[in-house]
Description:
The chain is mostly helical. The chain has helices spanning 7-13, 38-44, 48-51, 65-76; strands at 19-21, 33-36.
Amino acid sequence: MSKEFSFKDIVESAHELIIVTEIGEEEGTEQKIVYVNPAFTEITGFRFDEVVGQKARLLDQFDDENVRRKVSAAIKHKEPIQTTIKTLS
Length: 89
């Protein structure tokens, strides 16, 4: 039995949070969130429409400074990153 899956199907059914941000062309430009998958909304409690279009700084509330530095470096170098985040509640 062969079934084809689109990339969108895979991302939307993933249990891991997936966040896509735009990359600002100018140094110091804040990136905006352009997509989050359903796992992001389930785990964080944010609705899709509350997050998309917001500055990526919104994610600062989720983890420690070390993780934020890793994410910032990945964005700066236009590289993907995989990390574990936790809410600070």
